[in-house]
Specification:
It is built from 3 helices and 12 strands. The chain has 216 residues and is mostly beta strands. The radius of gyration is 25 Å and the shape is globular.
Length: 216
């Protein structure tokens, strides 16, 4: 008779879960002839002890601003000293933010730059999901970005949405914002020991040419 251990993967495997954290809205600060406009809102997370598998998306709810080419929007973690651009349209992009926008790492979705090519001051960027991108310089479209620099870092800490305004005369606001992340779900205490106990009990018996599953 040959005994075989049967893995109980459901007891031993950690799974991941997505969680969304919310930040307050704020008014955008316009640039002046002598200074760049800066506005921000922070989400402070503590006590989770979780490590980031990934940041999945950043959503800006009811974002408004005429002449979007004035703006650069990024996610910054001052504890890590790391930031990533979500969107930074070309200088000459006179289209408008006027909706709810989700920024994600993507090689398929359009960037904001691509979605507003050939549009003008009367064009409001439709609400929806867009690929993250950075500043390309002058009137050039920027390259795509992602959240890979944050993978493996602690979820606990300060996460700041920053909006920089580089030209005067156009203003706006952000109604609120949110950050969706994925983290591993830790195994409950003792779950590994229980799983190993079950592994020791479960065996397959070959008897009379039939395969039976039994407990010793």
């Amino acid at each position: 008779m040959k005994n075989l251990l049967v893995p109980i993967s459901a007891l031993l495997s950690a799974v991941s879960t997505a969680q969304t954290y919310h930040g307050a809205g704020f008014s955008l600060v316009d640039a002046t002839s002598s200074s760049v406009g800066y506005a921000s809102s922070s989400i402070v997370i503590s006590g989770t002890g979780a490590t980031l598998t990934s940041i999945d998306s950043i959503t800006l709810t009811n974002l408004t601003h005429t002449w979007m080419g004035d703006l650069e929007i990024d996610l910054y973690n001052p504890d890590l000293g790391v930031y990533v651009d979500l969107v930074s349209p070309p200088d000459l992009d006179s289209s408008n933010f006027n909706g709810t926008y989700t920024f994600v790492p993507s090689s398929i979705l359009s960037t904001v730059d691509e979605a507003t090519v050939g549009q003008g001051t009367s064009y409001d960027l439709p609400s929806g999901s867009y690929a993250m991108s950075t500043y390309g310089g002058g009137s050039a479209n920027g390259s795509r970005t992602d959240f890979s620099d944050f993978a493996g870092q602690s979820l606990d800490g300060t996460w700041t949405l920053e909006v920089w305004d580089y030209a005067a005369q156009d203003t706006g606001a952000c109604g609120s914002w949110s950050m969706t992340v994925t983290t591993p779900v830790p195994e409950p205490a003792g779950m590994t020991a229980v799983g190993l106990g079950v592994l020791l009990l479960v065996r397959k018996k070959r008897r009379n040419g039939r395969v039976l599953t039994g407990v010793a």
